[in-house]
Design brief:
Helices cover 35% and strands 20% of the residues. It is α/β, with parallel strands linked by helices. Strands 1-15-14-13-12-8-11-10-9-16 form a ten-stranded mixed β-sheet. A six-stranded parallel β-sheet has the order 4-3-2-5-6-7, with helices on both faces. β3, α6 and β4 form a beta-alpha-beta unit. The radius of gyration is 22 Å and the shape is globular. The protein starts with a strand and ends in a 20-residue tail after the last strand. The structure holds nicotinamide-adenine-dinucleotide. The site of nicotinamide-adenine-dinucleotide has 18 residues, from α5.
Length: 448
């Protein structure tokens, strides 16, 4: 799994060279995933093959399990290539409605369906009818499955939609989750879950009352390199973890975007990018912090920070003794990284939080000789993994790994962080003895 950094070729090149056919398949999906073809083509190919081939067509029911195994292309001493993609047949995939057609939906989420095995887009909700009509054409979504924010509740009558994915400004998550649950649909909601713990509680209650699942879109918890980091921490690969340092900052555009308005965003860098530091620390350790202390600073005279904060530095203390020091900012050059410091080694993710191109390095010194190791990045699409996990939870009636309770816990801790900065003193949090107290069932190995 690991390459030594010193002499080994680049890990991506190694795995690509080792699996020519597989690479071209992946390249095809990568390219196709950027457009409408991916969803239809990647999903339709196995069915078409099953129908076209007389023997296969005779035995395989359309919409039945289509798992295909192929012999390995490479020797066991070479890096292993990917297994066949094995998507569910289109009519067996869980149908998603996408609410909000902004940057995240158009640039990441809709293209990611091309890499999903269990999920497909079947409906759109937007306040901009012209944009929605274009997107609907791009992804082959029926005009009758396009809704405005006013007609959103009519999703109730659309049997193709099983999950509603809410990708709206933070202040709208609460209303659209509750209306979606009342419409009888499962909810996947973007982070931060809402603007207050009270709103989070109401969202959880509404989904419970409707008998529907609620998942918060913490993509990092489904991303393979971050999951490997979690395993190293939990397995004590380098002994006990002692300290963690996390950073997530970016320089915001000087415009009137909703992220700079408190009523819409709930806060500044903390609930947006700082949340990654908080949530990922909790995910790595499985413990809950018992104390937080924080400082906030915003550059005077900068219009972006009239209503919301620029920088937050916060420290989380955990029952095991681990201290996690986190920094987040909206006015400094992009940096999204963390380091875990353990007894006999350190593990660094840099970058740790972008959508693509993540990188992990581990440093330790077995036998006194310092080694740097770089795990292979399986290069999976985080949004596809997350949406497939939700689809599997719906199909198999499981609690998502990151349910509403996970979002609520983050919200409670963020409120304590703001309180600590305001009062300029540490704030205690209720002790939680159970590990992974707010998480559901972990994603299956094949999804990770
Ligand atoms: P965006 O501004 O690009 O898109 C927001 C969409 O909401 C737009 O289509 C806009 O028209 C619509 N909208 C409806 N009512 C609005 C209003 N009153 N004001 C402004 N826009 C309104 O934002 P985005 O980057 O796509 O973020 C959407 C959500 O996704 C946010 O909750 C954000 O935190 C989250 N997000 C998550 C990730 C992630 O990696 N998981 C990344 C980016 C954003």
């Amino acid at each position: 799994m690991f390459q030594e950094n010193t002499a080994a070729p680049d890990v991506h090149e190694t795995s690509a060279a080792a699996s020519g056919c597989d690479t071209s398949r992946r390249q095809f999906i990568n390219h196709a995933g950027r457009g409408l073809l991916a969803v239809g083509v990647a999903s339709a190919l196995p069915v078409a093959a099953a129908k076209a081939h007389p023997a296969a067509g005779a035995v395989l029911p359309v919409g039945g399990p289509l798992d295909i195994k192929l012999p390995p292309l490479e020797a066991p001493t070479d890096p292993k290539g990917a297994d066949p993609f094995n998507p569910d047949a289109p009519d067996r995939r869980v149908g998603y409605a996408l609410v909000g057609l902004g940057h995240l939906t158009l640039n990441e989420i809709l293209p990611a369906f091309g890499k999903c095995r269990h999920a497909r887009p079947v409906a759109l909700v937007s306040g901009d009818a012209d944009k929605m009509a274009k997107v609907a054409q791009q992804y082959g979504i029926k005009a009758s499955s396009c809704y405005s924010y006013q007609t959103y509740d009519k999703l109730k009558d659309n049997p193709e939609v099983e999950v509603i994915y809410i990708v709206l400004p933070n202040s709208m998550h609460h209303e659209f989750t509750i209306r979606g649950a009342k419409a009888g649909k499962h909810i996947l909601c973007e982070k931060p879950m809402a603007n207050s713990a009270k709103e989070c509680e109401e969202m959880i209650e509404a989904c419970k009352k409707a008998g529907k699942k609620l998942m918060i879109a913490y993509r990092i918890q489904y991303e393979p390199l971050n999951r490997m980091a979690q395993k190293a921490v939990r397995d004590k690969t380098y002994g006990a973890t002692k300290m963690i340092q996390m950073m997530n900052c970016q320089n915001q555009a000087h415009d009137q975007q909703w992220r700079h308005k408190k009523a819409l965003a709930g806060g500044g860098s903390l609930p947006d990018v700082g949340l990654y530091c908080l949530n990922t620390t909790r995910f790595l350790l499985g413990e809950e912090p018992t104390e937080v202390s924080a400082q906030i600073y915003s550059t005077p005279g900068d219009d972006r920070f009239k209503e919301i904060e620029e920088n937050v530095s916060f420290t989380l203390r955990f029952p095991s003794g681990v201290i996690s020091q986190c920094m987040t900012g909206y006015g400094s050059f992009n940096n999204k990284s963390y380091t875990v410091y353990a007894e006999t080694g350190s593990l660094r993710m840099d970058p740790a939080f972008p959508y693509h191109g993540l990188h992990q390095e581990r440093i330790h010194a077995p036998g006194g000789k310092q080694l740097k190791e770089t795990p292979n990045d399986p290069g999976k699409d985080q949004f596809a993994l997350e949406m497939d996990h939700m689809a599997e939870c719906v199909r198999q009636n499981k609690t998502p790994y990151t349910p509403g309770e996970e979002g609520l816990q983050d919200q409670r801790i963020m409120e304590a962080i703001y309180q600590s900065a305001r009062e300029n003193k540490p704030v205690k949090l209720p002790a939680v003895a159970k590990m992974d107290a707010f998480r559901g069932e972990a994603p299956k190995e094949e999804e990770a």
